[in-house]
Design goal:
- This protein is mostly beta strands and 443 residues long.
- 4% of the residues lie in helices and 36% in strands.
- It has helices spanning 207-213, 331-334, 401-405, and strands at 16-22, 25-30, 35-37, 40-42, 48-52, 59-61, 69-72, 80-83, 86-87, 93-94, 122-129, 134-137, 143-147, 156-163, 175-186, 194-204, 221-225, 230-232, 240-242, 247-254, 257-262, 284-291, 296-302, 312-318, 337-343, 355-359, 375-376, 381-386, 412-416, 421-422.
- The strands form nine sheets. It has a six-stranded antiparallel sheet.
- Strand 9 and strand 10 form a beta hairpin.
- The longest helix is centred in the middle third of the chain and has 7 residues, at 207-213.
- The two termini are 52 Å apart.
Length: 443
């Protein structure tokens, strides 16, 4: 064991994941707090501590905002220790490349790596926040935390630590993509858990990261541990998920264990079916966007070889920025104006080769989900997406030929109005009730 707590035990109260030697000193990193030096707790020695290598091994507090360490366990029992983050005087953490020492445990080492898999502990970033505010950013860009002026009264060191597993089990139905803690301590080493002004936390992610975890982007959230349960933070004022930039924004004023979580992707099982002409699937496209002086019409077509039987949404985007590229990008995410239709069972089945014309104000138009100016000028950019939304899948309500085979996405068409038009006035009213309650949930 490293050191002594004065009662026959070790100085450290939790596992060690990183070792580094500098001269006559051994530095360790792990989940421990308040190193116990022969009965005297060192409140500043959390996560990182130093020990003199000699007859009297004395733990030394090593808390500093200038460097943290990443320990990676490999099958050769050779942990690699890499200092990864340096805080600047402005309170913004930056990455400083440094020499990476490798430590190989020997038979005489007092703390050695074992062949048992050990969760990787990665203190990603640490920064100094003052009364004027500041920002902590991880070197990999996955995490950013900004404090406004007045959030703290004095200098506070904020440390973001990414974990290999949640601090508490996630509830049933929840899947985690990333787990982390954020800790703040004042100059005396005291924990700071609340702030005078809320901070803004931004987590970036990749589609591959969500796919690897089995998380549907439309269900993405950030949860925090309140001491007895995981609590979702979205929705909240000023918060949200930007599916275009792949980032989650959270505004809060407390520090706890956190997790980037979501619901799982629903996988449907399609049993083989023998039919005349062989097995087929529908394939919805926007055949045309037509405009005259008084209305806008969207013509959708089933160019597949099986009928469409599931109710679906159609979104129209007015001057979107950027243009839609995939399902679950509703018009509200990309534009300030848009229109929505919910195609229900009265229009179905839509047989192979069949078309359906949608107009503003018709039986399938949803004024409560639409927002558009009375007049659209020539030169207005208009996009339409058929089968545009389903919060429970990543492909919409209708599993189409190209989605089964991994082909190119063909549900979106765009163009520019060559003439201006005046749309009919349609009252907003309340939300429509789907004829058979089978329209999917929108993100």
């Amino acid at each position: 064991a490293l050191g002594s707590n004065g009662a026959g035990g070790a100085s450290l109260n939790n596992p060690v994941y990183a070792l580094a030697v500098s001269g006559d000193d051994l530095y360790v990193g792990g989940m421990f707090t308040d190193v116990n030096n022969n009965g005297a707790p060192l409140t500043a020695a959390d996560r990182v501590a130093g020990f003199g290598i000699g007859a009297a091994a004395t733990p030394t507090p090593t808390r500093t905002p200038t460097a943290t360490a990443t320990a990676t366990h490999t099958p050769t029992n050779t942990p690699t220790v890499t200092p990864t983050a340096t805080a600047t005087a402005t309170g913004t953490s930056t990455s400083t490349p440094t020499r990476t020492p490798t430590i190989t445990p020997t038979a005489t080492a007092t703390a050695t790596a074992t062949s048992t898999a050990t969760p990787t502990l990665t203190p990603v970033s640490s920064g100094l926040i003052g009364p004027n505010g500041g920002t902590v950013t991880s070197p990999d860009g996955k995490f950013q935390m900004t404090f406004p002026p007045g959030a703290v009264n004095g200098n506070v060191t904020v440390t973001y630590t990414e974990l290999a597993a949640p601090t508490q089990p996630l509830p049933t139905g929840r899947i985690g993509a990333r787990y982390f803690t954020i800790e703040a301590r004042d100059g005396a080493g005291n924990l700071v858990t609340n702030f005078n002004q809320p901070y803004t936390m931004i987590l970036t992610y990749t589609d591959a990261e969500l796919a690897a975890a089995g998380i549907l982007e439309a269900n993405l959230n950030v949860a925090f541990w309140n001491g007895s349960a995981w609590v979702d933070m979205l929705p909240c004022a000023g918060c949200g998920v930007d599916t275009i930039a792949n980032r989650v924004t959270i505004i809060a004023n407390h520090l706890t264990p956190f997790a980037l979580v979501g619901g799982g992707i629903i996988h449907r099982l399609f049993l083989p079916m023998t039919a005349r002409g062989g097995e087929g699937a529908p394939d919805l496209i926007v055949q045309s966007i037509a405009a005259n002086a008084t209305t806008l019409q969207i013509v959708v077509k089933n160019q597949g070889n099986a009928p469409v039987v599931d109710e679906f949404w159609v979104d129209v985007y007015i001057n979107p920025n950027p243009a839609p590229t995939k399902a679950n990008q509703t018009w509200q995410m990309l534009a300030s104006q848009g229109l929505v239709w919910g195609v229900t069972s009265s229009a179905l089945p839509l047989i192979p080769g069949g078309t359906l014309t949608l107009s503003v104000g018709d039986a399938y138009y949803w004024p409560s989900l639409s927002n558009v100016a009375a007049t659209l000028a020539a030169g207005t950019v208009v996009y339409a997406q058929v089968d545009s939304a389903n919060a429970d899948t990543n492909y919409g309500a209708v599993l189409e030929n190209h989605e089964r085979s991994g082909g190119a996405y063909n549900n979106i068409t765009g163009g520019t109005l060559t003439t201006g038009l005046t749309l009919p006035r349609v009252g907003s009213g309340g939300p429509r009730a789907p004829s058979s309650n089978r329209l999917p949930r929108r993100p």
